[in-house]
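Hi all, long-time lurker, first post. I run a small reading group and we've been trying to get comfortable going from sequence to structure in the token notation. Rather than ask abstract questions, I figured I'd post a concrete chain and ask someone more experienced to write out its structure so we can walk through it together at our next meeting. Sequence below, copied exactly:
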Amino acid sequence: METDLGKLYGHLPADLMAPFWFVATFNDRHIGAVRLDGDRLVNLGVRSETRRRGVGRYLMEKALERAKEMGLSQVRALASDYPVENRAMVGDFLLALGFEAVAEDQWQKAL
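-- Answer (accepted) --
Happy to help. Here is the structure in token form:
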């Protein structure tokens, strides 16, 4: 099944060919996704109506598992990968998952 992720995530870059997308679906609808691009987690997003139900946590667990399989020792996330209005929410979420803030606009987690 092909899906236009740009409809779900309007802030996505033109290059959607990164190695690993993790997508959550429910009733054949995309409700969330995250992309692992090297050691960087980008484009984390969950539909507002399905937030706070474990979807984001599940996606991140799968992405972190894959990062470990790839032999990475840590992963990071940058605030600049997210719309300004979502950066605080993303930062709080990452901190709750055990990431640490290493700069005002960057988080990382050892694997």
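A couple of things your group might point at:
The CA atoms of residues 22 and 59 lie 6 Å apart.
The mean pLDDT is 84.
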